[in-house]
Amino acid sequence: MDRKIKRIGVLTSGGDSPGMNAAVRAVTRTAIFYGIECIGIRRGWQGLINSDFIILDSSSVRHILGHGGTILYTARSQEFMTEEGRQKAVSTCRMLGLDGIIAIGGDGTFRGALELSRLGIPTMGIPATIDNDIGCTNYTIGFDSACNTAIDCIDKLRDTMQSHERCSVVEVMGRHAGFLALYVGIAVGATAVLVPEHELNFEEDVVARIQNSRLSGATHFMIVVAEGAGSAFDIGNRIHESLGLDPRVTVLGHIQRGGAPTGRDRETATRMGYYAVKAFAEGRTGSVICTREGGIVETPIEEALAMTKHLQMDRYAILEAISASAPAIK
Ligand code: F6P
Fold first, then answer.
1. Is the pLDDT of residue 2 over 60?
2. Does residue 178's CB lie within 6 angstroms of at least one atom of ligand 1?
3. Catalytic residue among 16, 52, 131, 265
4. Which are the contacts of 73, defined by CB distance < 8 A and separation ≥ 6?
5. Helix (H) or strand (E) holding 10
6. Is 172 in contact with 224 (CB distance < 8 Å)?
7. Per-residue pLDDT for 324 more than 80?
8. What is the structure's pLDDT at 325?
């Protein structure tokens, strides 16, 4: 891109995640630093279709760094999936004089960014989702906050499960991925963690672990289920049928998406927002800002969308060894 960037739009799309506001702030402030005007597009891609925008200046992003949610609102737009919808979005970009769009969200958001760039609007992506399931980047904004929220909730559950000597089955989010469940499961010392990446053998993965745990002295049990691995209620029923326990089931749900972002999410979001604008200012577009080996890299959006990330199964093995090891009896 050889012409100077004068004005960009920034939007948040898909499921929100703690730290999105920090990214919006960083984009706005970095744009101002480079002499670029910044427009906030509200309600994701749908807002671009509807010309739903606010002008962002330094003060409009004051005091949002530590707030969950997104001041720009977010949405999943069906209309943007159509050619007609995307053409309307292009018209909005032309009308507002936008030289580019920074889209903050997950892979659905990046598919939108790719489509828009094919219609001549330069785009950059910033990965933000509590699922941490974006192949091109080690880390996505919001994951750490969601993990900590889930850990806090499960620690509380453990107190009452311990008092009543019960079994708890907790369902955590993650869509089709088990990153959140596995991380949280290790951090709370779960008896078992069920993830979609590992085919469930109920006898081995649940029954035997609870039995081993009991034989090693435990009187309460914590089973963490990734939503993509099945329903916590079904698992609870099966535990009841197999072992006669009376499990209590908790679905953490959207509480995992809220709350103040952790330091890691604020810092990562700020760095990613900075680098997305810097790339634009230096004439590079069409990439997702990714963390890899501690640094930031730009990955072309099409390439980024084709990349997959595998659950670290060594962590699954660690959990197996530590939390539900064989009893110390023979
Ligand atoms: O992608 C983030 C996420 O929170 C997933 O973990 C979950 O499956 C989904 O969004 C829930 O979406 P919604 O907010 O539309 O219910």
1. no
2. no
3. 131
4. 12, 42, 43, 44, 47
5. strand 7-12
6. yes
7. no
8. 61
